[in-house]
Amino acid sequence: MSTNSETNKAMDAFKIKGDWKTQSSKLKTKFTQLTDSDLKMESGKDEELLKRLQNKLSKSREEMISIITKNQTEID
């Protein structure tokens, strides 16, 4: 049984995995409104990137994580 605090920790722990350059190119093709600036990845700033993409695409945190995770598995 998981508690809300465990769920929140899991949500807070989101990290981009794999080759971001390849992933971002694929996302840019899929979502043409994204710019290089939107997709800029800085070390340790995964949450900022996630929030930027959420805002730009009008997606919830969960939707954006799902999109990124699916994108990662399609590339692997």
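The record above closes out task 2.4. Task 2.5 opens with a second protein, given below.
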Amino acid sequence: MLIVLDSRPFERARRRTLFSIFAFVAISITKLLVGWVFGFQIVLADGIHNLADALMMIAAYVGIVLAQKPLKRTGLFPYGLYKGENLISLFMSIIIIFGAIEVMLEGLRPAKSSGPLMPTAVEIGSLLVVAFLGYWVSRAPEKPSVVVAEVVHDYQDALVSFIVIAGIFFEYYRLFRLYLIALLIVVVYLAYQALSVAKDSVLTLLDASDARVESEIAKAVSSVTGIIGFHELKVRKSGPYYFAEMHLELPRSVSVEEADEIADAVEEKIKETVPRVIGVTIHVEPGTSSGKWNIAVSADSNGIITGISQAEFFYIYYAGKAEPRVLPSPIAQVERRRVVALIDFLKQNAVNALITAEVEQPAAYALRGAGIDVYISRPEPAGEAILKFRAGGLKGYTEKD
């Protein structure tokens, strides 16, 4: 089975990312040459910093290319190769950390530097180019996570460039302490950037959960009608995408076909709410008594539970509401097709469980066929029966009842 994703937004992001790679490589080479020729260690540090940017964009490019490939549910990689982006990002971040350490050690022994005009001009030009790249790449409709991070980083680079420019003059005029402060800011920021990327990559590779996405999915599932509840919701990230799995609770009376339709509706709602979710695994099981039940209780005028035929009222207890809605029995004045009238009444009021003292077998089968679970209670106040139901103390209808 193939899952083919819309590749048009990613194609636009791919082209912009490829352009950014060439731009960062050019900026990095220019800074490294200028820093070496004019003897400015802080410019060399910024050149390595921009080289790290280029490496991160290469990782982003790989992630976008992998994201455009159809997802095969069979074969060696049934969940796709999306984590290739995270693997490359982790490798590159380690290289960046070692580079930052090396720059700091070299910076402690600054060599005699030449005039600051050329390095300053290069930094100003770099600032303008990087700011433009951040704005341009951010306008791509879809971006893998590493590109989103890089867009934010581009704007941060603009601030770093100001520090580098100040450091150029500090180094040139031999203001050693101020120069070291400026160099330390650049190196620490470079290391922080690398550690942040490494942390995100490691968490993704280890299938760490994402609380924000889990919360969005939970809200989406709760909004689907027909479910009793859900549990064991798990979400894991793979490159720019997410995979989710859960246990979905449905009434016992729901047929296989209806359960499949509800599960499909849940999956569609999740993907509509969180478009980057591309895989949802749902295990359907009977709903527990503590779930989201809307319960109707057949009762007399005193609120004591009776059989369906003897009921004068139906007390409807909605999930999340303490007080019931009391409605006259829809079959009290009906002589024919009473079960049909009862089912229509319960469906109109979104009921998925019925508590009664007595029910005929054909009526019980018809109710369960309509997706309404039937529970048997002795004659007692409706409120007490509800408490027993929620505590798991009522049994479902069987042929012996």
